[in-house]
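Lab notebook, bench 4. Still working through the backlog of constructs that have no structural model yet. Next entry is a single chain of 366 residues. Request: give me the structure tokens for it.
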Amino acid sequence: YNVVSFGARGDGRTDSTSAFLRAWTAACNSVTPASVSVPRGIFLIRSVSFVGPCKNRILFQISGTLVAPDNYNVVGNSQFWILFYKVSRLSVVGGIIDAKGSKFWSCRRSGGNCPRGARSISFQWCSNVIVNGLSSFNSQTVHMAINECSNMKIQNMKITAPSGSPNTDGIHIESSRGVTITGCTIRTGDDCISIGPGSMNMYMDNIGCGPGHGISIGSLGNGFNEDGVQNVTVTNSVFTKTQNGVRVKSWARPSGGYAKNLVFKNLIMRNVANPIIIDQRYCPGNSCPHQSSGVRVSQVTYKNIKGSSSTQAAMTFRCSSTNPCSGIRLQDIKLTYVNTLKRPTVSYCENAGGSTTGAVLPRSCW
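Model written out:
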């Protein structure tokens, strides 16, 4: 089902939203496996929801470029630009999506009367999804959002936005299980990958992160009745000039949340400000809760992490006074300070305990 045969025009100016929806409806109603094909060209689409369930598996093949309207208000009030909702057995392959977010960021920075902003591509209540070879440029807010999904594979994705673009997380995952992210290059203005409450069985491998804020579990502890995060692995990845490397962050307020069974291994840090950090007093703004975090952080392994820190505190464990971090395992860590004065890196610990094996630099607090 080629979108052009349903009336789409790849001239970058004609609104092709309804043509895309007609092609999707035809493919979704097909009893045999079907494909939606976007040929070469530049296709302008407004906010669009591709809704399932569909009758068989669908290949969404993008050879061209999808662009958002120049006026950021057109999609900026809808929370999403491209949404897949309740779709299973879906493959999204290739292509470029460009949300043209720069004017929206300018509005945000100037404190103007701006819309909330749209996430570029979102998956809600989806299962058995593969995204392979997609490139996302200049999202208004999050490039890719995954919520209430299961069994997703994100492969060979390129995500790009300027380092100063606000809240442009690369991939944000929440309330999902069985998500694998491999072979992705993420250069953006916020977290390269952020994992929110209710997420479990996550595997991230071969990620190039930077610029950005690193890979984060959290922020957690936003609400009291909050699902936890467990079984997350980040491996074989490189962080370059990021604000953080691997981070766990929670608000300092009561919560029933938790983060446990986290593994960070085989990582290279290149001039990273906080290569290893647990921050249970997370507060990016001015109105901080100033309480004690109820989020329980336990069983966190850091193994074979090497490279350079752009601050002296290469490892920070700022944990909750009422729920101290436990079971933190450090093995074969070597993080040096990039400062030419050759001062050594240090560890900073608060309410944290664990064990070390092998050579660990900087020395742990326990």
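Notes after review: The mean pLDDT is 97. The chain is about 5% helix and 50% strand. Flag for follow-up if needed.
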